[in-house]
Design goal:
Blueprint: E1 4-10, H1 12-22, H2 25-28, E2 31-37, H3 46-51, E3 54-57, H4 69-74, E4 81-84, E5 97-98, E6 106-107, H5 108-116, H6 119-128, H7 131-134, H8 137-154, H9 163-169, E7 176-178, E8 181-182, H10 184-197, H11 205-210, H12 224-229, E9 241-243, E10 246-248, H13 250-262, H14 268-273
Parallel strand pairs: 1-2, 1-3, 3-4
Antiparallel strand pairs: 5-6, 7-8, 9-10
Helix pairs in contact: 1-10, 5-6, 8-9
């Protein structure tokens, strides 16, 4: 029996889901998968769109133009099965994460402290974790709730729901590696839900046990003070997070962040890949430049 084409139009979460599908025999016997990376505007083969039998996609709004879900769906054959899969995101563990910052995984609180004073002062205040600075329990719980409601709103466009699982278990175990990298439990849930929609059962136990998360080499550390306020059992200050070739505590990660910023390095992920904790650069009093090229004030 020849396999038909499945197009997977998704971000990096497609890379996480793909092995679970390809290694599940009931799925692999029917489909060969091609992953179209949605956020890179990867070229679309119109012939493939017209002849694929299964289209898996994360919803993209009309602003994505020819890559929007609406236009992609219009190119499919009437016989093609289209299933919207989740694009998972959770800010609850990392309330200070900000997009479009000066470096990858920019921290809004650290950036605010850097604008107010030196890296040494920023380090001291940040690690102290005073509720007046990081937010009290109510404020942090509010950020969690906003993130959960955002996921619930997105599910109106998805055939697979994850928000109830996140809502039930986010406090018991760490469900995300970073804000948009779900862990294995959520990935298994998405894969199982998808296979059941197709009438193909679930991911076999042997596939689950052999699964290797493609982004397991970077776990974004969680501020221990945030963990304490939210009653998270996995955020002790001494916990070591896998960060490429290192296993760093939250404090060591913050030192790396500030060393990257104080030396005006913009590619934080590459900096971390080459980071040696024993050789941590000394934090200087020179302030990093913001996007406008204006240095922050010193205290």
């Amino acid at each position: 029996m020849s396999r038909t084409l499945c197009l997977l139009h998704a971000n990096c979460q497609g890379d996480m889901l793909l092995p679970l599908l390809e290694d599940t025999p009931t799925f692999a016997r029917l489909f060969r998968v091609r992953h179209l990376v949605n956020y890179t505007h990867e070229d679309i083969d119109l012939d493939e769109m017209a002849h694929c039998s299964l289209f898996l996609y994360q919803y993209l709004s009309p602003k994505w133009k020819e890559h929007s879900s609406e236009q992609m769906l219009n190119r499919l054959s009437p016989s093609c099965t289209a299933i919207a899969i989740p694009n998972l995101f959770f800010k609850g563990y990392w309330p200070f994460w900000k997009s479009g910052g000066p470096i990858n995984f920019a921290d809004s609180l650290l950036e605010k402290l850097l604008e107010m004073g030196t890296p040494q002062t920023a380090l001291r205040l940040y690690l102290k974790g005073n509720p007046a600075l990081i937010g009290d329990t109510s404020a942090l719980e509010g950020i969690v709730e906003d993130s959960l409601r955002h996921e619930e709103d997105k599910e109106t466009r998805s055939h697979i729901c994850c928000s109830s699982l996140i809502r039930e278990q986010w406090r018991e175990r760490q469900l995300f590696l970073t804000i948009n990298h779900p862990g294995t439990e959520l990935l298994f849930h998405v894969a199982d839900s998808l296979l059941r929609l197709l009438g193909l059962g679930a991911v076999p136990p042997s596939v689950r046990s052999a699964y290797s998360h493609p982004f397991d080499d970077f776990w974004l550390p969680i501020h221990p003070a945030v963990g304490q306020a939210l009653n998270l059992p996995f955020t002790a200050p001494q916990r070591r997070y896998t960060i490429f070739q290192n296993r760093l505590t939250h404090q060591e990660y913050v030192l790396a962040y500030l060393a990257c910023r104080s030396n005006n390095v913009h590619d934080f992920l590459t900096f971390l890949k080459n980071f040696v904790p024993s050789d941590t650069p000394k934090l200087t009093n020179r302030m990093p430049c913001n996007k406008a090229g204006v240095k922050g004030k010193t205290s």
